[in-house]
Amino acid sequence: MDKIVIHGGRRLKGEVRVSGAKNSALPLLFATLLAPGVHRIANVPDLRDITTVEKLLTTLGAEVVRENGTFTVDASAIESIEAPYDLVRTMRASVLVLGPLLARLGHARVSLPGGCAIGARPINLHLKGLEAMGAKITLDHGYVEAHAKRLHGARILFDMPTVGGTENLMMAAALAKGTTVLENAACEPEIIELGEALTKMGARIEGAGTDSITIEGVDELTPLEHAVMPDRIEAGTFMIASAITRGDVLVTGTVASHLEALIIKLREAGAEIIEEAGGLRVRGPRKINSVDIKTRPHPGFPTDMQAQFMALMALGTGTSMITENVFENRFMHVCELQRMGADISIEGHTATVKGVKGLLGAPVMATDLRASASLILAGLAADHTTEVSRIYHLDRGYERIEEKLKRLGADIERVPE
Ligand code: UD1
């Protein structure tokens, strides 16, 4: 297994372009299951999770051709309705086949994802919504079996905003009979993009991006032509990379409105952020102010940026309180940051980060996707050498991050272990 070796202390400078958004590409690729014909999706990042989707679509019978970031998916002949355990356990988002398969074919069998490093992450709200739309759902040897002759519209109130649940039900409702209203829906930019894509396919959707989405079901949909939006979490990670190294980096291809909460918090931390024609320029502060964050569903501070922001706060001049409200166990990076000299204590959902003067490189282990990014950021700022192992987590969500950081001047290398 590869590891990443960083010799810290270099200021990052230059320009970096963000790739297509993983969390948008995933539902868009699954949306191809809704309509027979040939779909074309461009700007798909080259990531391990995307390869998992490719395998899953192929297992279901779709023909997938992948060329320079463009996926051509022929979803005319869907022969299987089963998402097997082997694929779902490597990527929870595989449960997003449930809505499309059920809506188009009336039957789906999807392995239950089980737990993961950042918490239990159940899919009860996806299932409750589908049941309200008329699906019969049973559990069989670790698989969810769902049947419905044709789903019907329903009024669904999510107990909490769920990104995947909102996406699954939007896709299911697009082909259901009648009107579905999703209340307390997730408002993330990825939901807006899925709404736009489904609309291009002939769906009738209003309110995507607000907490109330109305979907008027149609009898059939047509193939999708679409380019995936830029990855806001990758962009945010490079912004913090610049801030933590006192760098001067222009992050191009970003959408500033997707990053508002992070921009506010980085400015409070002392970073200079300038919106330029090509993207966002981030200049790191001489001294990092310690600021508090609380993660919340969009437009709040994203949980997917919490670990990276904590790396920055580890070097703050005071004390920062970081509260994780979205996932119950998302502080796995803390122990690893402590090994590098960070002063962090956890009580319940809150981490108290007392800034230290410097971090010291150490061998550390990635525990999940965003935790890996946090350790890389810490390594960029630390003295001496940091070795991050188990980087398969990183490859799930960041496209060649070490090459991009290297071009910005980081001393970073991927080495086979
Ligand atoms: C998506 C993102 C992930 C991000 C998360 C929150 C993708 C592929 N992944 O994950 O990167 O961290 O949103 O922004 O887009 N919940 C339930 N029951 C359910 C569904 C969710 O209790 O049926 C809970 C979860 O355990 C969690 C919260 O709701 O505490 C939010 O989860 P959700 O928004 O569904 O996250 P994902 O869609 O899995």
Approximately how much beta-strand content do the residues carry?
25-35%
Bound molecules: uridine-diphosphate-N-acetylglucosamine
The percentage helix is 25-40%
Compute the number of helices.
14
Arithmetic mean pLDDT: 95
Count the beta strands.
Answer: 24
| Overall geometric form | elongated
Terminal residue distance: 5 Å
CATH class of the largest domain: Alpha Beta
Second-tier CATH architecture of the largest domain: Alpha-beta prism
Strand order of the largest sheet: 22-23-1-24
Which radius of gyration do the C-alpha atoms yield?
Answer: 21 Å
The computed structural class is alpha/beta
Uncertain parts: none
Tell me the CATH superfamily of the largest domain: Enolpyruvate transferase domain
Supply the number of structural domains. Answer: 2
Largest sheet: 4 strands, mixed
Q: What is the CATH T-level topology of the largest domain? A: UDP-n-acetylglucosamine1-carboxyvinyl-transferase, Chain
